[in-house]
Amino acid sequence: MVHRVRAAGLLVEHDRILLVGEGTLPSGERYFIPPGGGLELTDRSLVDCLQRELWEEVGIRVDVGDVVYAKEYVSRQTDTHHVELFFRVTRQAEPAPGIPTPDRPSTWFTLEALQDVPVFPPELKDGLWLQTDVSAPRRYLGRTES
Predict the structure, then answer these.
(1) Could you report the per-residue pLDDT of 93-135, keeping only the tens digit for each?
(2) What is the pLDDT of residues 66-93, one digit of tens each?
(3) Which residues have C-beta within 8 Å of that of residue 41, sequence separation ≥ 6?
């Protein structure tokens, strides 16, 4: 079995979260996920991975904070065990050098708007990402298989 580690960023500004369009469901409806991606050999850490991915996907430089969610997913079809960590991130104060070339369509959602669209993980609809208190609970979203 192949193991894949993914770091995803929960970027929240003005009570809205930034999500990227990932693909379409069998119904034809587009679904959204937090920007991020898999750990690569050139990444020194999950923080490096996440900073690289947000720059590549949405053209934003970020500082990485606490883990908010953790999730496991096993795909029998691809024989892959995925581990995902969802970190709170903030936009860096100073613009980073370079010109971003985002490769993913992104959309800002309020908690209310999230209720009407497919998002993964679906637990984003619980609003835990809105809590900024460092003592706010973290959630292990469990292990699923397909």
Answers:
(1) 766 566 556 667 889 999 999 999 999 999 899 888 887 665 6
(2) 888 899 999 999 999 999 999 999 998 7
(3) none
pTM of the model as a whole: 0.86
- Percent residues over pLDDT 70 in the chain: 85
Considering Cα of 115, then 121, then 126, then 130, what sign does the dihedral take?
Answer: negative
Q: Where are the beta strands (DSSP E) in 1-138?
A: 2-13, 16-24, 30-33, 36-38, 62-75, 80-91, 106-110
**Can you list the domains of the chain with their CATH numbers?**
2-129 (3.90.79.10)
Task: Name residues whose C-beta falls within 8 Å of residue 71's C-beta, 6 or more positions apart in sequence.
Answer: 83, 84, 86, 121, 140, 141, 142, 143
DSSP class of residue 116 equals T
In whole angstroms, what is the distance from residue 45 CA to residue 48 CA?
A: 5
For residue 79, CA distances in Å to 2, 74, 134, 139 come to 6, 7, 36, 25
